[in-house]
Amino acid sequence: MIGIELRTIAPEELPEAIALELSCYPPEAAATLEGFRHRIRLYPEYFWSAWADGRLVGIVNGVRTSQEECGDELKGAHGDDPEGHSFCVLTVAVDANNRRRGIGGMLLRKLIGQCRSAYLKSVSLMCESHLIGFYEQQGFVLHGQSASKHGGIVWYEMSLDLHTMEHLTE
């Protein structure tokens, strides 16, 4: 996409990132600045940003984990595992004026590429029902409704397997 710069976010840009987060998620479901600081401190290579004309228009981030899904304990309480074999996407946010331009997909592919480079086993996330098709287009598989009630929202669990071993038989 012309005019979009993708890069990992810098710590001094976190106030812009949290403002974008709060514009995309209800306050009860949005990450906190403390949560973003935790993610950038432990997982800076997984905190991607999209910029257009010097303005932040998208972010994607999350945490490594030993779990196969993104439970509520990974949101805010930092139940993550820096040595974990999986990645839980906690934020995908694109500025309302820049949606449907492919920015979310570009950011997600960057994040997935980083997970592949780190030889992680899988990427998981929870999303609202209207976003299931978007994530399916990115290769994620729907597992059904989540038990999570985070932010009073009905969430759906999805995952993408990475680096699967295929056994050859003769």
Provide a descriptive summary of the structure in words.
This protein is α+β, with helices and mostly antiparallel strands. The protein has one domain (4-161): Aminopeptidase (3-Layer(aba) Sandwich), CATH 3.40.630.30. Helices cover 25% and strands 28% of the residues. It is built from four helices and seven strands. The protein has helices at 14-24, 33-42, 103-117, 132-137, and strands at 4-8, 48-52, 55-65, 86-94, 122-127, 141-145, 156-161. The protein has a seven-stranded mixed sheet. It starts with a strand and ends in a 9-residue tail after the last strand. The model is unreliable at 166-170 (pLDDT under 50). Keywords: Acyltransferase, Transferase.
What's the helix count?
Answer: 4
CATH class: Alpha Beta
Structural class estimated from helices and strands: alpha+beta
Number of strands: 7
Any idea what the CATH superfamily is called?
Gcn5-related N-acetyltransferase (GNAT)
Global morphology: globular
Return the CATH topology: Aminopeptidase
Write down the overall mean pLDDT: 88
Number of domains: 1
* CATH architectural type: 3-Layer(aba) Sandwich
- How is the quaternary structure best described? single chain
The helical percent reads 10-25%
Largest beta-sheet characterization: 7 strands, mixed
List low-pLDDT spans. 166-170
Which strand-content bin applies to the residues? 25-35%
List SSEs in N-to-C order: EHHEEEHEHEE
